[in-house]
Amino acid sequence: MARPPKKRTIENIPEYIYFKPAGVPKSKLKEYILTFEELEAIRIKDIEGLDNEDCAAKMTVSRTTFQRVLGMARHKIALALLNGGAIRINGGNYQIAEELLQCPHCNFRNNKAFVCDKVDKDKDCPKFAAEL
């Protein structure tokens, strides 16, 4: 029996969840469904510019799972753009991050206790502990 999939952590639900080519009625368009975690993967990789390891940590998944989610998202977006389809953002296997804490030195945000490893070893980065 297969193990149930872990929920992927996302930061928020987007305000806009439907995109379509201008001038084409919705009834004539093929829809491509982008899940919330696929959109989150695009956001943190392509907008925030994090490396795959940091992206995977933010979404609480393995690097290979993150890469697979990101690949599926990019594939669906490419299909919609090249075929003139609509993109609907909906569904998925996700949870919204409860409380995100941000390091003032590196701007890394996390919902668990951590020590920043992006500053000099002799400088103390504040340790943030989430008491949820």
Characterize the structure shown.
The chain has about 130 residues and is of the alpha/beta class. The protein folds into 2 domains: about 10-95, Orthogonal Bundle (Arc Repressor Mutant, subunit A), CATH 1.10.10; about 100-130, no CATH class. The protein is built from 3 helices and 7 strands; from the N terminus they run E-E-E-H-H-H-E-E-E-E. The protein has helices spanning about 35-45, 50-60, 65-85; strands at about 10, 20, 30-35, 85-90, 95, 100, 110. A hairpin with a 6-residue loop joins strand 6 and strand 7. The longest helix has 21 residues, at about 65-85. The radius of gyration is 18 Å and the shape is elongated. Mean pLDDT is about 80; it is low at about 120-130.
Architecture blueprint of SSEs:
Blueprint: E1 8-10, E2 18-19, E3 31-34, H1 36-47, H2 52-59, H3 63-83, E4 86-89, E5 94-96, E6 101-102, E7 109-110
Helix pairs in contact: 1-3, 2-3
Explain briefly what this protein structure is.
By secondary structure, this protein is of the alpha/beta class. The protein is built from three helices and seven strands; from the N terminus they run βββαααββββ.
